[in-house]
Amino acid sequence: MRKRATESTMGQEAEQMNTSLFPLYPQPRSLELREGSGAFSALFALERLSEEAMQAASAVRVKERLEAAAARWQGSAGDTEGAEPNGSVTATALHIVCRPELHAQGYTAEWNGERLEIGYSDPEGLHYAVVTLEQLIARRGLAWTSYRIEDEPDFPVRGLMLDIGRNKIPKMETLYALIDRMSELKMNHLQLYMEGFCFDYETFRDSFPEATPISGEEFRQLDAYAKERFIDLVPNQNCLGHMGPWLAKPEFAELAEHPGGQETPVGIKLPPLTLNPLDGGSIELVRAMFGELLPHFTSGYVNVNMDEPFGLGTGQSKERAQEVGVGKLYMDYAEQVFEIIRSHGKRTLMWGDILTKHEEVIPLLPKDVTVLDWNYESHTSFETNGKLLQRHGVPYYVCPGTSTWSAVTGRTDNMLANIADAARSGKTYGAAGMIVTDWGDSGHWQPLVMSYPAYAYAAGTGWQTEANLEQHEQMERYVADCMLQDDSGHAGKLILELGRYINLENSTLENMTYTNHLLNRGLSTKEKLLSETDMIIKLLVEIGGRGIPFQLDYRYDDMLAWLKEQKEAIGELQLKSGDAESVSQELAHALSIIEHGSGLHRFIFGLELPDAAAELAWLRKLHSELASIIAEFDRLWLVRNRKGGLEASTRNLHKLLNQYEERLAELESV
Questions:
Q1: Which positions fall inside the Glycoside hydrolase family 20 catalytic domain (predicted)?
Q2: Positive or negative CA dihedral for 145, 151, 154, 157?
Q3: pLDDT digit string, tens, across residues 107-120
Q4: Which of 39, 65, 219, 444 is deepest in the core (most CB within 10 A)?
């Protein structure tokens, strides 16, 4: 007798799948619970397999991984399931069969209480079957109700792009751990975004003596490690806009679209950021960069980025832009980049912001280019661009964000809505992949752990969209149980809550929190802060901002109460992961940054500071706190990341500290 879920009971089945009886995330396409039960033993015996199945099982290390998962469970729980009275162990029968009709990344897993059978059509699908079984064992042990799982992904490409171009370049052990977490979430695509000297280009090494880049050999090691886990490590290097770190060097300054910097309508002058597409030296620089970078990667793809080329067609290339249009100017340069990538036998990925703004040039896009459609704000849907790209037959991925950058601990509700919209729209309008982006704007202050829920939610909705869209609670439990090994079970929920302090700021700022903005702007008067913020909002309109006038309704007392609650919640976590101590310290430190922001807000707006003596006492407190925050920031940074970039990351914090000292000197001299 079987208990099969029909379409009318799919919602009930999804709920059942996520009880403590059968925890699994991402939730699979279908699960059938059957009568009977039994327990895996600590050993698995491969039944007679075809030569093809044997080769796949060996490549994926099926037997070794399942036995290791069982041993970990027994070691943590003191479990003896599967043992005979004399202490011997009867191996669980394991049958693996190749089923060509299955999706290349799909699998079946069937347990009848005595025998485990896995079906697959490609080793990658077999790998995901083992990932599922490893998670089930890790979360509930070896004893199981009989079941059959049929599973495959909605998006063939499910990935993560981590920014290493803005200050923070992780150590190798950090990247290995990240790859492991991705594999456990059935993700299969990783990019490490680069816009500065993040890779050790030997030709240009002398221009960046302050950098601590990733070497070619290290990328080769990462590539091999990722490949073993069926993750495509895709090389990434910006090569038009976002070239500020290169153009700031005298030897490259002449290649800028605006060599002396770019004037803006609001009176703010931007430094040189974009290459001059008409200067032959620009494309030769790009050729040299990719010539050194690409041989270290086995991926068939390269992300050349080419997003946000600020000032393109308004400087050195203005005359050409007036003649042919900015879109054609952009595409003429892009085609030269595509040819460089083709010369290395690879295909191009590129951001789509310029293409979707200049629809007239989309027909010029070669068929071997995949567009990455990015959007990070929940108020804007992926639907419009999805329809556009699908209508033109352009292969594309949807790219939402973690919403953790420029926010310290993130903007949780924006992240959830942004990723959900990307998954829905991408599935509806034919996106071939979904990549969640984790940027490093404003100093890359956010700890990596703050992005774990976004990684998990993007992985879930990318694997099976409808099954996982509304499963926030199960995502939270996965973060707690599997990513952080939190015995309290609350870590995932807590991390999401830490990203909701924005709801107490009640600010109209976009793509950031007010607290992050305040700390980066520094000590100011209320009037100056409001004026400068309005100016920045107007500037952001030039790159897609909505231009909503700045409004603020900061709930100071509520913020203090919230901070107290979160400090207590951090203290109640029972983390058991290998980096548990660091995670706890990172969470506490991130909270201290937010708390300091609230203190700075109090000082600037004169909240409950009735006289000069009160102002002086509060300023002394702020100075002492910030000095401690910077010291802890430095220490925690070096636990997971290389030193290069640290000074740049904390530059605005040091500026604020100096401002405190100057203001203290003024007040104390009165």
A1: 155-399
A2: positive
A3: 999 999 999 999 99
A4: 444
Q: Which two tokens stand for residue 578?
A: 């290998």
pLDDT digits (tens, 9 = 90+) for 531-590: 989 888 988 887 778 889 999 999 999 999 999 999 999 999 999 999 999 999 999 999
> At 648, phi and psi to the nearest 5?
-65, -35
Give the pLDDT confidence score for residue 78 in this predicted structure: 57
Domain ranges of the chain: 23-72+90-151, 502-669
In sequence order, the 6+-apart residues with CB closer than 8 A to the CB of 399 are 161, 351, 372, 373, 374, 375, 422, 434, 435, 436, 437
CA-to-CA distance for 275 and 287, rounded, in angstroms? 14
Q: What does the alpha-carbon distance between residue 358 and residue 385 come to, in Å, rounded to a whole number?
A: 12
Q: Quick check: is 360 catalytic? A: no
The residue from 13, 124, 152, 308 that is catalytic is 308
How far is 396 from 372, CA to CA, in rounded Å?
6
Does an H or E element contain 370, and which? strand 369-374
Peptide bond into 23 cis (omega under 30): no
At residue 22 the predicted structure's pLDDT band, cuts being 50, 70 and 90, is confident
Look up residue 476 and give its two tokens. Answer: 């939270």
What is the Cα–Cα distance from 654 to 413, expressed in whole angstroms?
31
DSSP secondary structure, 464-513, as one string:
SHHHHTT-HHHHHHHIIIIIS-BTTS-HHHHHHHHTTTHHHH-B--SSS-
Q: Name 468's Cβ contacts closer than 8 Å, sequence gap at least 6.
A: 25, 26, 27, 457, 460, 461, 474, 475
Q: What are phi and psi of 59, to 5 degrees?
A: -65, -40
Q: Distance between CA 263 and CA 241 in Å, rounded?
A: 16
Q: Which fold has domain 23-72+90-151?
A: Chitobiase; domain 2 (3.30.379)
Within 10 angstroms of residue 93's Cβ, the number of other Cβ atoms is 15
